[in-house]
């Protein structure tokens, strides 16, 4: 039977479509391989050379992950690696649930030592201790074995939450701002308007703002190298120095105005670039929304906004430039096996119930002072007693204790 001209055309058309589909599939496969290769290259670039000492679960059994997230200022000034942001993500891939736990930087924690002395320090200094252990000779180095610079703060996380920390991710704040800018900014709802008159300007931490001569005269007093008699005599002769000294203690923005910038945020929806988002998440001196507890809540909102933007169509197109830029600002010790298991979960993030928890006053901690006069936060239940926090985190994951939900999108359990 002769094949009609129409049938030949249809056959030719079908063959062309199959060829096009084949080409598209080939391009997608090659693109997928290229993306996987780039992701793996990025991971190898930020992965720190550590080795796990204890394996508690086989890879097949693992469905809960505890990730420590640290943010630090960076730079070359003193305290560059003090962690202003300390969060622990406790995630369950079976339950599609995660608790985002913020730990204030002033929490007073026990630090293990080789001398067994009762040594405590603010938790925000532990990462820096791990990076420069030679400055703390009595700290027990077994927690820093195999180059694990986050070993001490992981230990503190275990003491506070009652479960071991699997891995950490540390981010220089410079990288934080760049990442948000690459994503095109983030959208955040500001809960309440606030003004902060003491937001520090990076690089100006020690600037005397033209008051060098005045500072030189009271520097011995600040360093506690001046007797009470000499202090009274100095202030009697130069009352302006007494005012300057009091401003340094009580109103540093007046004593050194060049060190600070005023921040103002209005309540309601706001689109923030990287610099504004960083200021919003780090501000802590406003009367309306100040302190570490409110700051922790704002940091959680920014993290949620970054997640939403990253998962948007526009955000997904920025994966490659984001990896190129961020490689110099991120460090992690997440094991390669965990990366392989967690990478497919990215597409499911919108299904996760994310529950925020701030270890805040008065529910979990109380204000106090160390023997050296430092402002610190102690567990409400007593020094080193974190049982209430541990119980509440477990109950939240088990669905026993109601908690305010930060986001719950397309929840499927």
TrEMBL record:
Belongs to the LytR/CpsA/Psr (LCP) family. The keyword Membrane applies. InterPro entries: LytR/CpsA/Psr_CW_biosynth, LytR_CpsA_psr. Residues 83-310 form the Cell envelope-related transcriptional attenuator domain. This is Cell envelope-related transcriptional attenuator domain-containing protein. Coiled coil: none annotated. The keyword Membrane applies. Keywords: Membrane, Transmembrane, Transmembrane helix. The chain crosses the membrane at residues 20-40.
């Amino acid at each position: 039977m002769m094949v009609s001209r129409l049938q030949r055309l249809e056959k030719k058309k079908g063959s062309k479509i199959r060829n096009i589909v084949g080409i598209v599939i080939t391009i997608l496969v090659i693109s997928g391989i290229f993306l996987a290769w780039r992701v793996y290259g990025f991971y190898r670039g930020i992965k720190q050379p550590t080795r796990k000492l204890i394996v508690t679960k086989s890879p097949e059994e693992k469905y809960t992950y505890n990730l420590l997230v640290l943010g630090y200022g960076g730079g070359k000034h003193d305290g560059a690696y003090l962690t202003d942001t300390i969060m622990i993500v406790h995630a369950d891939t079976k339950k599609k649930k995660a608790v985002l736990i913020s730990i204030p930087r002033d929490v007073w924690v026990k630090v293990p030592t080789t001398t067994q002395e009762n040594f405590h320090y603010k938790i925000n200094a532990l990462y820096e201790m791990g990076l420069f252990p030679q400055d703390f000779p009595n700290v027990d180095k077994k927690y820093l074995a195999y180059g694990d610079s986050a070993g001490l703060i992981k230990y503190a996380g275990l003491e506070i939450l009652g479960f071991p920390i699997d891995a950490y991710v540390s981010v220089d704040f410079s990288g934080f701002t760049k990442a948000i800018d690459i994503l095109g900014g983030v959208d955040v709802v500001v809960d309440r308007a606030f003004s902060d008159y003491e937001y520090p300007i990076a690089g100006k931490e020690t600037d005397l703002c033209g008051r060098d001569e005045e500072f030189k005269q009271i520097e011995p007093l600040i360093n506690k190298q001046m007797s009470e008699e000499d202090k009274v005599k100095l202030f009697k002769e130069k009352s302006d120095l007494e005012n300057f000294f009091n401003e340094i203690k009580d109103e540093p923005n007046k004593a050194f105005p060049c060190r600070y910038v005023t921040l103002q945020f209005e309540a309601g929806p706001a689109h923030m670039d990287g610099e504004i988002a960083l200021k919003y998440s780090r501000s802590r001196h406003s009367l309306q929304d100040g302190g570490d507890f409110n700051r922790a809540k704002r940091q959680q909102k920014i993290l949620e906004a970054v997640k939403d933007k990253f998962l948007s169509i526009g955000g997904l197109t920025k994966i490659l430039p984001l990896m190129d830029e961020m490689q110099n600002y991120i460090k992690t010790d997440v094991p390669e096996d965990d990366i392989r298991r967690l990478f497919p979960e990215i597409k499911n993030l919108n299904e996760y119930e994310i529950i925020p928890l701030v270890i805040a006053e008065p529910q979990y901690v109380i204000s106090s002072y160390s023997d050296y006069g430092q402002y610190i936060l102690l567990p409400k239940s007593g020094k080193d007693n974190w049982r209430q926090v541990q119980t509440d985190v477990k109950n939240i994951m088990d669905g026993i204790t109601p908690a305010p939900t930060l986001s719950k999108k397309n929840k499927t359990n």
